[in-house]
Amino acid sequence: MIILKTGRELSVMKEACRISAGALKLIGSAVEPGVTTAELDRLAEKYILSEGAKPNFKNYNGFPATACISINNEVIHGIPSHKRVIKAGDIVSVDLGALFEGYHGDNAATFAAGDISPEAKRLMDVTKESLYEGIKMARHGGRIGDISHAVQSYVEAKGYSVVRQFVGHGIGTSLHEAPEVPNFGNPGRGVRLVSGMTLAIEPMINMGKSGVRTLADNWTVVTLDNSLSAHFEHTVAITPDGPQILTIAD
Ligand code: MG
């Protein structure tokens, strides 16, 4: 069931999303060679708690941390660790969210550690741009497939591929609600978009082929061909005035 949010609910969600975005921004500013992924995770957790919210990924289906931190060929769901030291040239995808007064925020971004290759930079740029292409289509009266197609066509025209096994999602009082928001599909198809819907739109884009697999830790998803992967996500509300990005930091 798709749950539409009232204006009052959106204002609470906006706060959850502001905190989520603040935590992501904080991690982004701390990504550098030599830091461990556990240190980054701790920063985000402290920030979210200090804002009176809770890290909503922690203990979600047993996930042990605040942030998913996925490096290079890791696509999503990397588990922060004291043993995992970030190196110069890594690209670091961070996905996290906050629960505030019963409502969830969710966002992700890929950050560069030190100097990265021009190829890695281009992958990050195209993935971020594809997110905004998708967001533009999150309009009352459209269809989910409009968002999906906007992301897919943008990315594939640049020679990259879209991960298909994982998709975006509705979000609200649950971290994952209906509808699914795939990053591939056909315009004019799928669920009708209406004002009051809140969606986590999140392209996961591989430099090589689209295939992925999950490692033996049962969480970390990596590219099958070991190519680099990037991930950007915003929580977005569909409003009568068009799409509104909720995950904006102060
Ligand atoms: Mg998400």
What does this structure look like?
The chain has 250 residues and is α+β, with helices and mostly antiparallel strands. The chain has a single domain, classed as Creatine Amidinohydrolase (Alpha-Beta Complex), CATH 3.90.230.10. It is 28% helix and 26% strand. The protein has four helices and 15 strands. The chain has helices at residues 7-30, 37-50, 118-136, 144-157, and strands at 54-55, 67-71, 74-76, 91-100, 103-112, 161-162, 168-170, 177-181, 198-201, 204-206, 212-214, 221-223, 229-231, 234-239, 242-245. The chain has a five-stranded antiparallel beta sheet with strand order 8-7-9-14-15. Strands 1, 2, 4 and 5 form a four-stranded antiparallel beta sheet that branches. Strand 4 and strand 5 (103-112) form a beta hairpin. Helix 1 packs antiparallel against helix 2 (37-50). The longest helix is centred in the first third of the chain and has 24 residues, at 7-30. It is globular, with a radius of gyration of 17 Å. The two termini are 32 Å apart.
